[in-house]
């Protein structure tokens, strides 16, 4: 199938490399043209615009930062009108439930298909082809795209026939990541106050209780934030806020998520929006805990 891929950031670029490695014909577009041109050497066709990339594509993948970016690409960028009847738009991004519902209706009205397929995993996981994908969509388009999704993932969970359910699932999963970061932060600061090396604390409780590579990896990131953030505070704040918004639409209270969102918003106000999501949260919340009351 002919594939268009729009958005070549930290997650999109490694996914395209894997699609090309599997022999797929892929046309790429990115706001920063240099990223797209780098993939041309590996066999990708570079489009001059998002609209041009989407013309005649069987599958249009989007991997962009947020709701505003996606709507800009689809509407102002001309992608919706360029997609042919029967084409499938697959949103790999973490977007709001409200926008996912809107796009489901928009594509149906145009005779197109929409599938929500947000991915779990940081950029290094994407490079290794080990993402996990939550999928929401009608059986026919899901069946068509599943073999392609499996080329850059270690597993796929079909959530329901509603695309928005996959995006809701992703927001719930990211809430749990933030909850883990917050609980590790409090535990590690407590350990340090008790004279325990935070690294020893994480290693011990993970070995004794969780036995999770996730806890181990995030503990390491929190203690030694990477120079290049895998996921930023800005991304974490966006996801936490969207989780709260979708819960409120279902009349569900989110007391923990409200605290996490406030902390992440404070970090942005302090100029930390580009800091690592885990490392930045640990630094900010840890400093607040250490302050005399």
TrEMBL record:
UniProt keyword Zinc, yes or no: no
Protein name: NAD(P)-dependent oxidoreductase
InterPro entries found in the cross-reference section: 6-PGluconate_DH-like_C_sf, 6PGD_dom2, 6PGDH_NADP-bd, HIBADH-like_NADP-bd, HIBADH-related, HIBADH-related_NP60_sf, NAD(P)-bd_dom_sf
A Pfam family reported for this protein in Swiss-Prot or TrEMBL: NAD_binding_2
Keywords: NAD, Oxidoreductase
Entry keyword Zinc: no
Positions of the 3-hydroxyisobutyrate dehydrogenase-like NAD-binding domain: 166-277
Entry's Gene Ontology molecular function annotations: NAD binding; NADP binding; oxidoreductase activity
Origin species: Paracidobacterium acidisoli
Domain (6-phosphogluconate dehydrogenase NADP-binding) ranges: 2-157
List of catalytic residues: 170
């Amino acid at each position: 199938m002919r594939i268009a891929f729009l958005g070549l950031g930290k997650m999109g670029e490694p996914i395209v490399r894997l699609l090309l490695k599997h022999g797929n014909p892929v046309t790429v577009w990115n706001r920063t043209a240099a990223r797209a041109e780098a993939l041309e050497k590996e066999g990708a066709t570079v489009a001059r615009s998002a609209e041009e990339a989407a013309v005649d594509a069987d599958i249009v993948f989007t991997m962009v930062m947020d709701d505003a970016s996606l709507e800009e690409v689809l509407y102002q960028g001309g992608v919706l009108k360029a997609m042919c009847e029967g084409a499938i738009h697959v949103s790999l991004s973490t977007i709001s439930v409200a926008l996912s519902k809107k796009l489901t209706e928009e594509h149906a009205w145009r005779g197109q298909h929409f599938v929500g397929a947000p991915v779990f995993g940081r950029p290094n996981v994407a490079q290794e082809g080990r993402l996990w994908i939550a999928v929401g969509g009608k059986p026919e388009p899901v069946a068509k795209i599943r073999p392609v999704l499996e080329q850059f993932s270690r597993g796929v969970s079909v959530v329901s026939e509603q695309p928005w359910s996959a995006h809701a699932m992703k927001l719930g999963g990211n809430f749990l990541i933030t909850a883990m970061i917050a609980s590790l932060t409090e535990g590690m600061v407590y350990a340090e106050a008790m004279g325990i090396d935070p690294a020893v604390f994480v290693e011990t409780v993970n070995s004794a209780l969780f036995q999770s590579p996730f806890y181990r990896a995030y503990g390491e990131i929190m203690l030694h934030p990477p120079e290049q953030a895998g996921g930023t505070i800005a991304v974490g704040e966006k996801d936490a806020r969207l989780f709260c918004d979708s819960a409120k639409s279902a009349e569900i209270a989110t007391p923990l998520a409200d605290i996490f969102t406030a902390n992440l918003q404070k970090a942005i106000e302090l100029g930390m929006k580009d800091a690592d999501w885990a490392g930045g949260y640990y630094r900010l919340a840890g400093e607040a805990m250490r302050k005399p009351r």
